[in-house]
Amino acid sequence: MANLFLDACANRPVSRTPVWLMRQAGRYMAEYRAIRERYDFWTVCRTPELAAEVTLQPIAALAPDAAILFSDILVVLPPMGLSVDFSPGPVIARPVRTTDDIHQLTTFDVHRELGFVFDALRMVRRSLAPEVALIGFGGAPLTLAAYMVEGGKTKNFEALKSLFYARPEAAHGLLDFLVDVQADFLCAQIDAGAQAIQIFDTWAGSMPRDIIAEFVIPKVASLVARVKKSGVPVIYFMKDAAHVLDLLAQTGADVLSLDEKTPLDIAAARIGGHVALQGNFDPAVLLADRETISQRLDALLATVPPGRGHIFNLGHGVLPSTPVENVAWLIAQVKRRSAR
Amino acid sequence: MANLFLDACANRPVSRTPVWLMRQAGRYMAEYRAIRERYDFWTVCRTPELAAEVTLQPIAALAPDAAILFSDILVVLPPMGLSVDFSPGPVIARPVRTTDDIHQLTTFDVHRELGFVFDALRMVRRSLAPEVALIGFGGAPLTLAAYMVEGGKTKNFEALKSLFYARPEAAHGLLDFLVDVQADFLCAQIDAGAQAIQIFDTWAGSMPRDIIAEFVIPKVASLVARVKKSGVPVIYFMKDAAHVLDLLAQTGADVLSLDEKTPLDIAAARIGGHVALQGNFDPAVLLADRETISQRLDALLATVPPGRGHIFNLGHGVLPSTPVENVAWLIAQVKRRSAR
Predict the structure, then answer these.
(1) What is the tally of structural domains in chain A?
(2) What is the interface pTM, i.e. ipTM, of the complex?
(3) Tell me, what CATH number does B159's domain have?
(4) Residue A60 burial by CB count (10 A; 0-12/13-18/19+): exposed, middle or buried?
(5) Which residue among A171, B32, B205, B231 has its CA within the 20 to 30 Å range from the CA of A240?
(6) Full domain range(s) for residue B119
(7) Which of A157, A161, A288 is closest, CB to CB, to B166?
């Protein structure tokens, strides 16, 4: 069955560009805020009915070509033995700092501990029209490690970088553990109905190139290889990757998702190969008027390199202050203006 | 008179690599903390005796090859009519948002309004040995505009990007105004004894490439040209510039300062030309042991491209948690290991 999103992931020709938006379910939508007035973030993530409902809200309202499960990359931390609170950013009560801390992280049965994720995926898949793809996701090893080691968001990554610089063996051990956890978790999402997987690497691009070459690319490549055995496409999104574009194809991902910093044609030339691209509209453009949005959309579509699949998306998530009518209009315009 | 720092800025041969560190005066030093226990940040900036004392603290303790005036890029805001508080990050009480706000910004006589900066420079120059260079500095137009429009630090630059996307003419007006202010300010610093100028562009690298091409490079080039008429070298530091390295030489700066993301040899190939380079040691390495620091230092020195001047510096400022003895040791090692 033809599916625009899956066709683009595989570099197959499509009648128009498929489109979905990172954080298409979120605070900019009144339906989402109504749910969040009654339930906290973690409760929504962990309650399959709520996660499924929130996942489907933008599908009904905005008609993108893919749904991505509403969840959080940090759902894997509590089963490892790390408690996570959101206040509103994530706070890990006892960060992982020593080699002992790393050894004390526990492996776990993803089906027993994270059943709410798989239940939500099954519910969403049952409600989706066949032409809408369902995307599962998880955090990349370095990004998960960043939260675990730093204990939350950070500007300078002092603890994480100290691990890389002064105790590289311990860092490799932690990252390899996370590859194992994520391979199990993502493959189980595929079993539950995910038709593609996006790996989010929010913080890897904050590292210098040599750290990325040693601690990011080989780990992601190992994870991607294990996920691809399940036969679904893998999208890898490293934010702020301009200094390592030429390394990204080594991950083996089917699709590279790019932020808004570099135009797609320039990025593609540095990436090389034939990997499909996802992105990279600046979410801040959605705060402007429609004429500006149109101009920027046409400019982006003109940068899509020929011969590569392209999935329209933002450079990062929808900003909470975005007018929902601009998002609806953008998605409709992508469909119309990209039609071949 | 031979001056290693000035020789390196001009791509002249040097007997060893000159070294100074961004934020070499700061919280990691007990002498600095002692001053700050008695005076707030703004008072230190605005009192020439205190600014000069803090500027000279690392010169006495660590013997770098250059002193940079202790001050803040936002000293130019109050004379324009914008009050700034630090709590601890900068907060601008009434951000610049409308075209009217931009028109209400006032030009001012830098000598009358910012005399404390020039007095401090004269005091420092009198106390410095002739072989130590004195660097003046200021903010680049976009970075100043970011604070003025957003009202402080921001993650997504929603207000600033809205200006660029939806009201580009107003944005050009604001940036051109800032070029004028900064040209006067930086030239007056040179008159007061600054032997080089560093232009800090902390936030430009957070913008997409097309915004940088339109709103950053031409404005910085105009500013650099006006400063260079005074006959001193100009260093331009755009943080997170990996996606626009090939545009940086168009600024006309004598020296490009680079963050730690891209090794110097790879960066130089993308920059092209013959501009000298400054950087780009990861400040987080200074949290590690000396063996690690040594290895990383040797690795950095091996990436310096032949034929270009090189000034050793960090990729960004010294982290407040850095052990001061590691900084002293790094500076001594740079001098020793780079000797030709």
Answers:
(1) 1
(2) 0.96
(3) 3.20.20.210
(4) exposed
(5) A171
(6) 4-337
(7) A288
